[in-house]
Design goal:
single chain, 148 residues, mainly beta, Jelly Rolls, six-stranded mixed beta sheet, five-stranded antiparallel beta sheet, 1 helix
Length: 148
């Protein structure tokens, strides 16, 4: 019985470790004004919670999520900033294919450094087995840069 518990514990750790390795950070290379795709994921049919790390030129004033391939039930998403604070965005909406959320202005004014976004959602039922594809877009206004 003790060996069975140890094997179960090792399998549990291995499953969580492989899921962590599957997460690819979004690398934003451009600092030009406008909208930039900062992350994407395919959504399962079960309630899913995905974490998307953002590195590189990661200062934004607003975020928006876009949906393709199938509708999605978006419950919420949390935006984590460089100083450890977070902004929770409650959505609780079915987003059609194609569709998008409202533009979410980041709290604190100006541009903020976004470290990660955690999404809570699932693909809506009745879509012929297709899985939703969700993209996270960030708006760069460069309001903190001085004109030269």
């Amino acid at each position: 019985m003790k060996n069975l518990k140890i094997i179960f514990f090792v399998l549990l750790i291995a499953a969580n470790y492989s899921k962590a390795l599957a997460q690819k950070p979004a690398v934003v290379l451009s600092d030009k004004q406008g909208w930039h795709k900062i992350g994407e994921n395919t959504v399962s049919f079960n309630t899913d919670k995905d974490e998307i790390m953002v590195i590189g030129a990661n200062k934004f004033s607003s975020l928006q999520l876009k949906v393709t391939n199938a509708p999605v039930n978006l419950k919420s998403f949390d935006i984590y900033f460089d100083k450890g604070d977070k902004q929770s965005v409650s959505v609780s909406q079915n987003i059609k294919d194609p569709g998008e959320t409202r533009v979410v202005k980041l709290e604190g004014g100006g541009e903020r450094v976004v470290r990660k976004v955690i999404l809570t959602y699932n693909t809506a039922t009745g879509n012929s087995g297709k899985k939703a594809h969700v993209e996270i877009w960030g708006l760069k206004t460069n309001t903190d840069k001085k004109d030269k």
